[in-house]
Specification:
With about 375 residues, the protein is α+β, with helices and mostly antiparallel strands. It folds into three domains: about 1-25 and about 260-300 and about 310-370, no CATH class; about 30-40 and about 185-255; about 45-180, no CATH class. It is about 20% helix and about 35% strand. It is built from six helices and 24 strands. Helix 1 (about 1-25) runs antiparallel to helix 5.
C-alpha cells in the first residue's frame, strides 16, 4: 500500500519535471493562423425544428404532444385529413437540427448537420429526417436539410435488461444541409481587417503587428489593445485580400503570456507555465493521520454455565505524524521550483495546498487559477 502511494507522486513529479525542462528552452515560433482569427472569417449558426420518421418503435411517446401536433400539421399541409387523437408517434421523433454555415458558403454548398432529439425518444437509429428549413438569427431561411441519420451507437432492450453504446439520441447527416441563400458579405471588398488574438497579451499583440508590417513593407497594422490588431489593406492588395491573408496567416511569431499556475482540484492536476518564478521562501509540509478502529470482542460463557453472552467494546487508536524537513526554495525558473517541491516529497494534492499558501505569502509570482 505504501509502495503504490509513493510511486504515484514520483511519476507525477517526473512528468512535471519533464515539462519544466521542455519549457526552459526558448519559446518556439507558431503560425499566426494558429493563435488568431481574422475578421470576416467566421461561422454562422443555423437551427431548425423537424421530424425524424421510420424509427423502429423508438420514437416519442404519446405524452409528447408537440410531436403529435407537428405530425398533424405536416400531414394537413400535404392535404391529408387526420384525427390528432388517433396519432401514435412511436415511429416519429421531434428533433432540433443545427448547422454551422461559414461566411464563404454559397447557394448549393453542402454542410454537415447535427440532429438532436427534443422529446422522449429512446433512439434515432434507422431514422430519416424530413425536409427541415434552417434559419439564422434574423429569422431568414438559409438552408434546407433532409436525409438518413448516421448514429454512432446502438440501443437494445428486453424485459429485464438493456444494452446501450454511446448516445443514440443524437445523430449526424454528412452533407445533408444544402445552402439556399448565402450571407450577404464580400470578403475582398473590405477596407481593413481585424486580427483577433486567442490570448490577451500586449507583447504578443505588438509582435504580431510588427511582423505583419515587416512582411507587407509598410505601417499598415496597428495594435488596438492586448488582443486585437487592425490591418489596413495596402493598395496593391485591394480587391485581392485573399492573397494577402494567405501570406500573412503563415507568419511565425513567438507568443508570450503571463505566468500562470492552473490547478484542477477535482483530479489533482497541476500545470505550471514556463514563466513561473518564486522568491526565497522556506516550505515545510506534513500530515497528521489519526485512525480510530472499533473491534468488539464477544464473551461466550461455557456450555453449562449460568451466564450470558456479552459484547465487550475494544477501541484502537493509531496516530502517525509525518516529520518533514524545512526546505528553503528560491529561484527564477520552474525547474528549481519543481526540484524544491520534489525535495519535500510533495504529492499532487500537497502541491495544490503548497502553491496556494505560497501565493498567499507573496512568494509565488504567477496567476493561480483554480478550476
Amino acid at each position: 500500500m505504501y509502495g503504490h502511494s509513493r510511486i504515484r507522486p514520483i511519476l507525477f513529479l517526473l512528468l512535471v519535471l519533464a515539462m519544466a525542462m521542455a519549457s526552459a528552452l526558448p519559446a518556439e515560433a507558431v503560425r499566426l493562423k494558429d493563435i488568431a482569427s481574422f475578421g470576416g472569417v467566421r461561422t454562422n449558426g443555423l437551427v431548425g425544428y423537424g421530424l425524424v420518421v421510420g424509427l423502429p418503435g423508438t420514437g416519442d411517446k404519446s405524452s409528447s404532444q408537440f410531436t403529435i401536433q407537428s405530425m398533424a400539421n405536416m400531414l394537413e399541409s400535404m392535404g391529408v385529413k387526420v384525427d390528432r387523437a388517433a396519432l401514435k408517434p412511436k415511429n416519429v421523433a421531434a428533433v432540433m437540427v443545427t448547422v454551422k454555415m461559414p461566411a464563404s458558403a454559397r447557394p448549393g454548398s453542402r454542410l454537415d448537420a447535427t440532429i438532436s432529439s427534443v422529446g422522449d425518444a429512446t433512439s434515432l437509429v434507422g431514422g430519416v429526417l424530413l425536409m427541415t428549413p434552417l434559419k439564422g438569427v434574423d429569422g431568414g431561411v438559409y438552408a434546407l436539410c433532409q436525409g438518413p441519420l448516421a448514429v454512432g451507437g446502438f440501443s437494445a432492450a428486453g424485459e429485464a435488461a438493456t444494452a446501450t453504446k454511446n448516445v443514440t439520441t443524437v445523430g449526424r447527416i454528412p452533407g445533408g444541409a444544402v445552402v439556399e441563400r448565402g450571407v450577404p458579405f464580400s470578403f475582398n471588398d473590405q477596407a481593413d481587417i481585424s486580427i483577433q488574438l486567442a490570448v490577451e497579451d500586449f507583447s504578443t499583440a505588438k509582435q504580431v503587428a510588427d511582423s505583419v508590417n515587416r512582411s507587407i513593407g509598410g505601417q499598415y497594422a496597428h495594435a488596438q489593445d492586448a488582443s486585437s490588431i487592425k490591418l489596413a489593406i495596402p493598395p496593391q492588395y485591394q480587391g485581392n485580400i485573399v492573397a494577402l491573408m494567405a501570406s500573412l496567416e503563415n507568419l511565425e511569431v513567438q507568443p508570450d503570456s503571463r505566468a500562470k499556475v492552473v490547478v484542477d482540484e477535482k483530479t489533482g492536476t497541476v500545470v505550471l507555465g514556463s514563466n513561473v518564478s518564486l522568491s526565497r521562501v522556506a516550505v515545510s509540509h506534513g500530515n497528521l493521520n489519526v485512525v480510530v478502529s472499533e473491534q468488539p470482542q464477544v464473551s461466550q460463557p461455557g456450555a453449562f454455565a449460568q451466564g450470558q453472552t456479552v459484547v465487550t467494546p475494544a477501541t484502537g487508536i493509531g496516530v502517525r505524524e509525518e516529520q518533514r524537513r524545512l526546505v528553503l526554495m528560491a529561484g527564477a525558473s520552474i525547474q528549481e521550483l519543481v526540484d524544491g517541491l520534489n525535495a519535500i516529497g510533495a504529492t499532487p494534492r500537497d502541491l495544490i495546498s503548497i502553491l496556494r499558501t505560497m501565493k498567499s505569502a507573496g512568494a509565488l509570482h504567477a496567476d493561480l487559477e483554480v478550476l
